Amino acid sequence: MTQPSSERVEKWSVFELALRGPSDGNPYRDYPLKAVFRYGGREVTVDGFYDGDGTYRIRFMPDREGVWSYRTSSPADQLDGLSGSFECAPASEGNRGPVRVRDAYHFAHEDGTPYHPFGTTCYAWIHLDEGMQEETLRTLASKRFNKLRMCVFPKHYAFNSADPDSYPFAERADGGFDFDRFDPRFFAKLERRILELQKLGIETDLILFHPYDNGRWGFDRMSADTDEFYLRYLIARIASIRSVWWSLANEYDFMEEKTTADWDRLFRVVQEADPYGHLRSIHNGTRMYDHGSVRFYDHAKPWVTHLSVQHWDVTLPPIWHRQYRKPIVIDECCYEGNLPQRWGNITAEEMTRRFWDSAARGAYCTHGETYADPKDDIWWAKGGKLHGQSPERISFLRDILEDAPADIAPIPEIYDVPTIGVEGEYYLQYFGIHRPCWREIPLPEDAVYKAEIIDTWEMTIREVEGTLSGLSRLELPDKVYQAVRIRKLAES
Asked: Which of 215, 233, 452, 469 is the least crowded, having the fewest Cβ atoms under 10 Å away?
């Protein structure tokens, strides 16, 4: 059976093929479905999935313009040997493709556009009621975060213990879960929310496992077979969405029933099942090992694309860069708020400082907010509304970095103040809690530069009178949270 070429899908968007097939037995396991997509001499194999009520789907993200053909294979006769084609059209404005690792420090979209992650955290927002979810999207639409860190599974944790309306796995009559069957309603919701985030320009950093189950559901201690069954189904459903990142786990080292070998295996499952090579990371907890050091997964392993780190000391990225040579996102550096827990009560000033300090050392930081609320409606857990003062300052930093040269990197030769830039062309220094009244800036003598004083809290930029060349003395405001930007003037 051949279907005519009638559908037109833009580059890096989703082509979907819906098919009718058997619903007897257990369709989630009994009737695997694949399709091979071809463009010229290139072939991409993707998994299909059962979506309930006798419907099977295959989703594909084309990355080249032109006509693609496909052919299905399955042990089910209704699903086997179906062929057809579709046209891949140019990407529309704002569609830059998936985010990739560009080099040891940077990310970029597949079309080459630099991407600087300025993320926030709403772990369980899709497990709340519809009204709260919609409020979260409205809040995100009014801010400038471009990455959201969130969980697939529900959480039973501080300030977050409500039952969701649906779960990834089908519920049994006795209140447990059938780990051989999924609930398509849940995945439809997840897909819808990821696509809504995409429309807002937000990448979804999706946490695949976490330890916050507390024996309530059993999602944190499934069998190895169930773990893989779940991952392959999830990836078949959503890997075709260009804005997805895979975070294997949050605080993986708190899941004591899994070993490093288990995480290696799960990474390889994700890498094998995802035909598009989305970003992959794993996030550590803060249990101490070996003279007070935090236990890291070995980020040098080839299936890890970048570091997703939990650490309060944002001065450490240069050490991690030397060890792993991969981009670093400090996805938890503590949260702006006033909770009694030590991780949830730093000031907006301190959150902003950690973002700037990370950036000046060649890394990125992720925001979270944890202000006490009578209803426990805390952004970090549930979404809803933001109340803090750091998001606007984080947006200001995003403007600064997006205006910088694409290849900025740490300049270690300037050792006493974190500095990022392009040697001889561009310098961005951040003083943080230090407040020098003046600084000597070593610049090349054969070029002319302009300097600006940036107040990172007040969000002001003041141009310094005159120009600089060679070793230059620069008068500073003698206050905290100041930065200096120096740019080479174009030759006349």
From this structure: 215
